[in-house]
Specification:
The protein is α+β, with helices and mostly antiparallel strands and 146 residues long. The protein has one domain: Gcn5-related N-acetyltransferase (GNAT) (Aminopeptidase, 3-Layer(aba) Sandwich), CATH 3.40.630. It contains 4 helices and 7 strands; from the N terminus they run βααβββαβαββ. The termini are far apart.
Length: 146
């Protein structure tokens, strides 16, 4: 089940745990809490346990994904897809023009996931990531409304 966080102060510890298990430069609890006014967090749960999350902030009619992460023991079970789908649904509800994100060029699984949701590579950021240093693809999905 995916749900939007309604209490980021309560959920920040779980998000930070996922960050630590997924990323070499994880967000801290303090950084997560400080972003609560600008970022929507969507939680994937197994019962009451938070097992994954996606974050996105909006500027005008633009959506920027902060991170998507799933605990290692829950990967390859479609949870990442459900999180991406929820971010897309949120974007459509908000009538956003696009949703965009960065992804390590070596993260083939994530790149393929995003492509299945009609994200396209629109650019490359040199040396965007640290630990290890690596380029990022900028991937964007545009929305058209009638």
């Amino acid at each position: 089940m995916i749900e939007k966080s309604t209490n980021i102060r309560k959920d920040a510890q779980f998000i930070a745990e996922i960050e630590r298990s997924c990323f070499s430069t994880p967000w801290t609890v303090e950084q997560i809490i400080s972003s609560e006014d600008t970022t929507a967090f969507f939680l994937a749960k197994d019962g009451e346990k938070v097992i994954g999350y996606g974050g996105m902030y909006t500027v005008l009619d633009e959506g920027y994904v902060t991170n998507i992460g799933v605990l290692p023991e829950y990967r390859r079970k479609g949870i990442g897809s459900k999180i991406v789908k929820e971010l897309i649904n949120f974007s459509i509800e908000k009538s956003l023009s696009f949703i965009t994100l960065e992804v390590r060029v070596s993260n083939v699984a994530a790149i393929e996931l995003y492509k299945t949701f009609e994200f396209n590579e629109v650019g490359r950021r040199k040396n965007f990531y640290r630990n290890p240093t690596e380029d990022a693809f900028i991937m964007t999905r545009y929305f058209k409304y009638e």
